[in-house]
Write a structure and sequence with these properties.
By secondary structure, the protein is mainly alpha-helical. The protein contains seven helices and no strands.
Length: about 180
């Protein structure tokens, strides 16, 4: 996928209904963390595959665990955006580790459908997901998911804010 913005949409859209089980920022940004590998290869012209070991489920699991651990230590950074979108930020280390792994796996699965050089089942050289879906369909799914997430997150936050404001107003009007 031409770098990470395409990964934000599906990640954000999948994270919202699963918010009870996963940490949304950890999950969403884990989808981005994996692309540090090809970015490094491009910026520091390395003699290394564009989609190397981090784009495998095995090593990707380690990347997800590392990101989940890092996210746990910087979790306060995400409190304000989570409050802004009316998403309570109740998390724990196990939830963040799981979110990191699942986010990386989602990235690898999407990329595996597009790129022949990805070896999701390493040490096997097989990529059973390559072209299982037409690339144009993958991009369309990502674009629609991104648009939906951009609409749903603020709309949901606005509706919850209005409901809270309405409840406060009703409580304030009760006469003793």
């Amino acid at each position: 996928m031409p770098f990470t913005p395409y990964h934000f949409g599906p990640a954000a859209l999948l994270a919202l209904p699963a918010k009870k089980y996963i940490d949304i920022p950890t999950f969403v940004f884990a989808n981005v963390a994996v692309d540090l590998e090809p970015l490094t290869v491009i910026l520091l012209p390395l003699n290394y595959p564009l989609h190397g070991f981090c784009h495998t489920l095995l090593i990707g699991t380690a990347v997800g665990l590392l990101w989940g651990l890092l996210a746990y230590f910087i979790k306060d950074i995400f409190k304000w955006p989570m409050q802004f979108f009316q998403l309570p930020c109740k998390t724990c280390i196990s939830k963040m580790l799981l979110s990191g792994i699942l986010g990386v796996w989602l990235h690898i699965i999407f990329d595996s459908t597009l790129y022949r050089d990805i070896r999701p089942l390493w040490p096997s050289n097989a990529n059973p997901l390559f072209r299982i879906i037409k690339p144009s369909s993958v991009y369309l799914i990502c674009e629609i998911a991104c648009i939906a997430a951009v609409v749903i997150f603020p709309a949901r936050a606005f509706c919850l804010y209005r409901r809270q404001k309405s409840q406060i107003h009703k409580v304030g009007n009760i006469k003793d």
